[in-house]
Amino acid sequence: MIIILKRNANPQKVEALKEDLTRRGFGLHLSDGTEASLIGLIGDTSSIQEDWLRALDVVEDVRRIREPYKKANRSMHPENTVIDICGQKIGGGNFQVIAGPCSIETEEQITEVARDVKRFGARFLRGGAFKPRTSPYAFQGLHEQGLDLLLRAKRATGLPVVTEIMSTEHLPLFDEVDVIQVGARNMQNFELLKELGKIDKPVLLKRGLANTLDELLMSAEYIMAGGNEKVILCERGIRTFETSTRNTLDISAVPMLKQKTHLPVIIDPSHAAGIRFMVEPLSLAAIAAGADGLMIEVHNNPEKALCDGAQSLTPQMFDTLMRKISRSVEFFQSLS
Ligand code: PEP
Ligand code: MN
């Protein structure tokens, strides 16, 4: 971190700042130029609040040389992280597909979809029991009963399950869930992230609707700083001025995140597009960009779905897509 001092900075106040920084354990690298005087901080600056420095009378500006995230940073951990979930690996060349309905509706629905997606090659079952809906009058999910139905589908098929948590209060209900999803709307629910940092369970962290990649990585850092390093990142489309798709899939997030972090990165083409016909091209684009997996919404009767029917594939469409996905994964892996 570099602190740029004001030209007319009071020398006593600058001395006081240097002493304070030394007391905090930093080495100081001083540079008195004709244009500006700088203090370079040597040491781990991740705990330093830039706002504290900016508020000081003598400080003109503060620049970070290193990103404030450490545990998620690839420079601290050059190898790709591989997360093992019930024997299924994700990351580091292990590509996985998570599929299932937006929300769990009935036992028949979730079990039927689970059987179909398993048959067509998905290795994880998704389904929401706690649904973050824009309208308080929309279907909110079956809550505890939904989790129970999801676990029945897990027992019936052997597929590990991924489902969203919305509140720390519900954490005890998630004991048998294999991957806990933090949805886009909760990406910066820091109390929730801190609680998930204390458990030993993989977390699928979705990018917020209007969050930068660095903010996503800082949210991953919240979980990892607590001791839980099993974090999977998910790009699911962001808000832009474009209205013809539900969101805009930020495909460049994949190579950029892969450069910044060692964590697995997956794409959710369903919530990005909001329209069924775009799920296939976006899935294939994600593979080409280097994603470690996909999360795809599949419903046995999309027309009757209680949530996100327009973007849900039928099991037959999913079958066709999975054939293209496996050929694409093989092709792109053969190039590297
Ligand atoms: C979901 O995956 O069910 C979901 C609600 O997605 P997002 O948080 O990305 O909107
Ligand atoms: Mn959905």
Low-confidence stretches: none
> Spatial order of the strands in the main sheet?
7-8-9-10-11-12-13-14
State the shape: elongated
Strand content: 15-25%
Q: Over all CA atoms, what is the radius of gyration? A: 23 Å
Number of strands: 14
Number of domains: 2
**Oligomer state of the chains in this structure:** single chain
Ligands and ions found? phosphoenolpyruvate, manganese (II) ion
For this structure, the CATH topology of the largest domain is TIM Barrel
- CATH architecture level-2 label of the largest domain: Alpha-Beta Barrel
Distance between the termini: 36 Å
Describe this structure in words.
The chain has helices at 11-23, 50-54, 107-119, 143-157, 190-197, 213-225, 253-260, 269-273, 279-289, 315-335; strands at residues 2-5, 27-32, 37-42, 59-63, 83-85, 88-90, 96-100, 124-126, 161-165, 179-182, 203-206, 231-235, 265-267, 293-297. With 336 residues, the protein is an alpha/beta fold. The protein has 2 domains: 2-63, Alpha-Beta Plaits; 83-335, Alpha-Beta Barrel (TIM Barrel), CATH 3.20.20.70. The strands form 3 sheets. The protein has an 8-stranded parallel barrel with strand order 7-8-9-10-11-12-13-14, surrounded by 5 helices. Helix 9 runs parallel beside helix 10. The longest helix has 21 residues, at 315-335. Phosphoenolpyruvate binds at residues 102, 128, 132, 164, 183-185, 206, 236, 268, 271. Phosphoenolpyruvate is lined by residues 102, 128, 132, 164, 183-185, 206, 236, 268, 271.
